[in-house]
Amino acid sequence: VQIINNYQGISSPSPDSVEHTKMSTSLPSYQQEGRNTGGAYAPIPGENGEGTKSNFFCRKSSLLVLGSVAVLAAGFSYVYNGGKGIPSQNAEEVSNAAELTGKLFDSLDRYVLEDYDAKPTFSNFLPGVAGLYGKPMWTFYVNRGQGFASFGVDSKDYPILEFNPANKAYISTAQRGFRTFIKATRDGETETIEPFSPATARSLQDNLDDESLPKRFMFVGTNEMEILETDEKTGLETNVIYFLMPKEDFAAVVRRTKITNTGDTPVTIDVLDGLPKIEPAGGGLDFMLKNMGRTLEGWMGVYHADEKEKTMPFYRLSTQPSDSASVKIQEAGHYVLAYTDDKPNDLLPIVYDSSKVFGRDTTLSNPWGFENVKSVDDIVNGKQYGAATTSSAFVAISKKTLAPGESVTINSFYGKASKISEVSTIARIVRGEGWVDKKLQEARSTMDDITAAVTTTTGNHLFNGAIKQMYMDNGLRGGLPVILGDVNDELKLLNSDEDERVKVFHVFSRIHGDLERDYNSFHLKPAYFSQGPGNYRDVAQNRRNDVILSPRVAGFDIKMFLSYVQADGYEPLTVEAIAFYLKDKEKCRYIAETATGNTTNVMSSTNQLHDILCGGTFRPGQLFELIEQLGVNVIMGNDKFINLVLSEAQYTVMGVYGTGFWADHWEYYLDMIEAYLSIYPDGEEQLMYDNELRYFYSTAHVKPRSEKYILTYTFDGKSKHVQQLDATAWDEEKIEQKTKFFDTATGLFDPLQADWQHQLSDSGVLTSSPIAKLFLLVTTKYTMRDAYGMGVEYEGGRPGWNDAMNGLVGMVGSGMPETYELLVLLKYVKKVVSTYDRPLVIPAELLNLVQTANAALADLLASGYTDNFGSLSSAVPQPLFTYWDTCATAREEYRASVRLAFSGDTEELSADFVVETLSAWIKQVDQGIKRAFELGTGGDGNDGTSGVSPCYFSFDVTEWKLNGGHSAMGLPTVDATSMAVGIFPLFLEGPVRYMKTIADDTETQLEVYNKVMNTGLRDEPLKMYTLSDSLIGQSYDMGRMMAFSPGWLENQSVWLHMSYKYYLQLIRGGLYEEFFSEMVNGGMLPFMEPVTYGRSLMECSSFLASSAFVDPSMHGRGFLPRLSGSTAEFLSMYILMMMGPKLFFLDDDGGLNFQLKPALPLWLFESDTGDASDESSSSDDSSELSITYKLFSAIDVTVHNTAKKNIFGIAPNSYNLVLADGTE
Length: 1224
Hints:
With 1224 residues, the protein is of the alpha+beta class. 28% of the residues lie in helices and 22% in strands. The longest helix has 25 residues.
């Protein structure tokens, strides 16, 4: 089924000549259903268990509703003419180890790392996805030893293999991670072999390499990791594959070890395969493992679900370790189960006494105990001890004879059970012929189903894979939207704005903590619909494209994030998944009766379910957990049940204040709005005016300047200066306000009340429309501009996007990125109010701030002050200082008036007043930008003449007066009376954000591009861009950027997220040649040099060590894996490449139109007869160049490039729809 688009002889974009598909001005939404087992990653059909028949992530077709015409559609195709091609590389698929050398990916589209353990170190992880109805675990691996460095449940506090940061994991994994010991007897000779041992690793230096050593490979898949060793000397091949158990109600890591006899004669082997050390369950243990490990061992023990055979060990503490009057008995434990493929019903014994394996070698280097016994049976049948020590978990195989070419495969399972009696149940489930094969296929197909939304076929195989990986990793940081509440087919035609029964819930998200980001405390709940909390900025950025890829999301994300906007214009740090609730007891009763059958013999289940549903807020995973724990008998499948519940439920947004207020959180709203308008341009007025949103209520406030401008000594103690310190404070009165909504029944604050700003009259929470909240934002940010009217001040205790500039807050700093975002938001709010000519209803307190700011501006204009461009002084002119002081004071007074609650009074502003006010503010912001460009930048090698936008300013308080206050440290507080501005080196974020203000001016954007190219931001050897220019000579006061070595972390490294933001601006601005040149010359994945990058080319890193780093061997290597905001930028670039900027738009008559205007270079096309770069193919008129992708995650689009030219921003002449019955 296709929708065909025809392009005949179009050579340049010409909007006037393009015919658009005219639609109804009322745009319905898109039904996404069906099943598709396709996808680039080895599509393997799998079965769905009870309750999982409908796959939320897998869409085979879509019901595209255009006006009143419904078309079951899965594709477009169209024809182009364009320019000169750039060669692409295709790699052959490989089928065996001998053919792997030199390959970048295998036949399963897994990335291949040859001699992985001889290459520079890197860390990675499995995605922690077990399906909607599965329970995930967290897992991390490195390219040392057998890979797996750490894994566990929920967080690093609950490890099965202890969490260690990357630098320690690189050292310890080969010894404390999984190990395999083989005692092999061949032709009368016996030797002990350890596959993947560091002692037999290859050297990549040609003069040192010993070709007789084993050959090793690592295969990085989307939901699996495999290692392979082929050892010609021993005649053994060992491969190990890891994956998470999918679609089961228990969590487990599955490890499959296969040992093959590649020799010419039979070999008899004894095998120990598993963990030298396994941690028991017993509460949060990470701190104690690292600080009180020996003491903690006193609680440790090994118990057995089968006391006789020792095949079901259960590792736990006796009680949770504490020194309090409350003692908690530990029931949950970690289990290990194993069997061989040929005997699935026979569980293998587990060696849990590590001393029996290693003997006196406490370093775990040599298995002396194993070497000194005749058979592993001697260990298994001997006495073992597991008390007061950290035990092992080795699967044991005795006297297995393998003929030449024969293999033995060990399937082992490592997980957690809530009590020991569950282990035998799990053991029954996991055994069975072909069961592990089936689960591996399900793990693969689970990822295929998720990433099918962006299935793309171009001429570059790695690019196709990178798109899927970026989509997956973007979802792991921001969450993947699942549409719930579909209780009938009619509802599937509606989006979340059109019917309140349609719910959006994001799954699989978590904060980006891993071995290299060891500072973050990640959480990955082992539950159905698993997800965890995330950082506000991360989630907001990574949900930018939700509505484009899944149109039924509609305005959900916009309304959710605007709800987080507080009365003071800030937002909390942490975003949690939304929670659902049911207040109507009749609805609870109806659902409970429907779900349980409501007969006499199930009345207990009916009542229990009723109480659960009406007992408070819940998330889907929590609901299923309670049902399981209480033994509620639900008679319908999981899908049907959760859709029934959520169709009747309401939801509330959840968040946590954290520490301080970041200056950039609000900057991502307009990206969401623009994405929404590219799908629903006719929905803008309803979205902006006809919704009511609450104000989030944090338990902290921003101090006024009189309390945070602190007089302190400089670092050398020779003089004093004023710093802005301790800018936020916990607010006991606000905490007291929240206690009014403490629920004594649950012991928790009621999130429906406590998290939201109320009115003084206690008449409930105050709500405002989205456009009113945007007006509040621009008002507060406008009055936060610095004393020179240039940057927005970092006065909330935290900086903006570049949080490594943490010290800039203390320097009374400000940022131009926020000013540029303020300018585009001011223009957007003005456009909306002007277009719809509707009044704004705002809190009465806000009007006072607006009026004061306007009066202060009138005074400034009346003062006669003008900027003396060409000779601006660093000293802030007194009229500007007075204007700043007046606005800042008004802002502080406004915040004080709404700190605890709103009065409840509102004011209605006319559209004319709002437009007039915003117009005046826009002029002032523009003027401040001009000042910023003149004052400019400076630093090492920077003479200030680059013409590139500055990013940051500091303000030195040159005169002040004591105000009688003191800080918590006893230091005096002051009031500033004059200031002077300080400048900084160049930062890439400056021009990136500036380019958003000139988005429609391609010529000026090209000038910016050329200027940036000629600055220190360009890393010419790497053909990339660094986060900053040289910081040599800068003050350490600016923050931790200065603490790092140049070229490392945020100090002049290639920070991929900001680089990708820059590239995104290039394609947004129509700089197509420049964009694709940067791409193929190595600026973007997967086009980087693989050996230099040092990890999978399909996966992002947060930063690359730049050419400024002292060690040249590190230049271009990626660090901090995957969960980066760069994935959001990549998806935005991908959408612009494949689809164009505005899929739907309104014409001058208000008619709804659809068009595709992609930007695709010739070299990215594929041909039926060869690559686009193949001259014979390109010149052959009979050959066909095409690219295919998914529109709205569901509709197949095929782009035919018959003219063999670049297609840059060109729309088709016409669209031909091919219907399900083949009719065009």
